[in-house]
Amino acid sequence: MRLFTHHALQTPAAKPLNDWLTKAGPVSTLMQTARQLATLEAEVLALLPPGLRAGIAVGGVKQEAGNAAREETLVLLAAHGAAAARVRQVVPSLLARLQQRGSRIAAIRVRVQPEVGRGDWDTEPAPRPQRKPMSPTGLASLGTLEQTLPDSPLRDAVRNLLQHHRQG
Fold first, then answer.
1. From CA 54, how far away is CA 48, in angstroms rounded?
2. Separation in Å, CA 25 to CA 30, 32, 33, 37, 166
3. Distance between CA atoms of residues 51 and 9, nearest Å
4. How confident is the model over 55-108, as pLDDT tens digits?
5. CA separation for the pair 69, 147 (Å, rounded)
6. Which of 72-81, 114-123, 140-149 has the lowest mean pLDDT?
7. Contacts for 106 with CB less than 8 Å, ≥ 6 apart
8. DSSP letters of the chain?
9. Is 55 exposed, middle or buried (CB count within 10 Å of its CB: 0-12, 13-18, 19+)?
10. Beta strand pairing call for 105-112 and 56-63
11. Cβ-Cβ contacts under 8 Å for 3 (sequence gap 6 or more)
């Protein structure tokens, strides 16, 4: 989760809203969780190699049911399968580094979560390239091959291929 800070939030009119968000009951818990996730995401992205940072986001932290040790599982969202596979390779070292920094994260899960709003799904299929007709020499060679083959499934296949190319 990315924490957005806009210059308008620094104005005097916005400060009471920020105060309300941090002091109001259920909303303050939500804001606190959002800040913790933003901090965790910044920490995780700082530990990842630079090439992986663009395709990874923190999806949340889950606490396993019935876990008396209060161990947590970090869920990372990958933009595509290749990013997920690469992050899974560095999960052991990432987990160790997070635990060295005092995190209660006991496990890391990586899930593929493509961005639905990209519009990639609404594209038209790629146009099929126009096939060039078989040359007269090729047709003659296939005709000769058909005549020399004994009666068999191969001869039938060559005959069908010739009919197809003579028609179209």
1. 10
2. 9, 11, 13, 19, 79
3. 32
4. 888 888 888 766 666 778 999 998 888 889 999 999 999 999 888 988 888 899
5. 80
6. 114-123
7. 69, 71, 72, 73
8. -PPP--GGGGSTTTHHHHHHHHHSHHHHHHHHHHHHHHHHHHHHHHHS-GGGGGGEEEEEEEE-TT-TT--EEEEEEESSHHHHHHHHHHHHHHHHHHHHTT--EEEEEEEE---GGG-GGGPPPPPPPPPPPPPHHHHHHHHHHHHHS-SSHHHHHHHHHHHHHHH-
9. middle
10. unpaired
11. 34, 35, 38
The identity of residue 54, as a single letter, is A
Number of CB atoms found within 10 A of residue 98's CB: 19
- The token pair at 119 is 């519009």
- Other beta carbons within 10 angstroms of residue 19's beta carbon come to 10
How big is the chain, counted in residues?
168
Cα separation, 98 vs 86, whole angstroms: 18
The amino acid occupying position 125 is P
In the block, tokens 């990842």 appear at 48
What is the identity of the amino acid at 93?
S
